[in-house]
Amino acid sequence: xxxxxxxxxxxxxxxxxxxxxxxxxxxxxxxxxxxxxxxxxxxxxxxxxxxxxxxxxxxxxxxxxxxxxxxxxxxxxxxxx
Length: 81
Fold this sequence. Notes:
Helix content is 90%, strand content 0%. The protein is an all-alpha fold.
């Protein structure tokens, strides 16, 4: 059986855990609101999906830029020859 001190310590731990949980819930709510405001996403799943789409678009644009730079370098090289 637990002593009175152990029970009081346990109660304090539970109270601290509840407080931490409430703080985390508040942070989650704030983050979700920011995602909604900034990126029109209301869930983390939507944010992850949008991130994957944007990463693909960035990769595609990067490839197009690299191809354009290569073409320009070739044109400039041909003009100087």
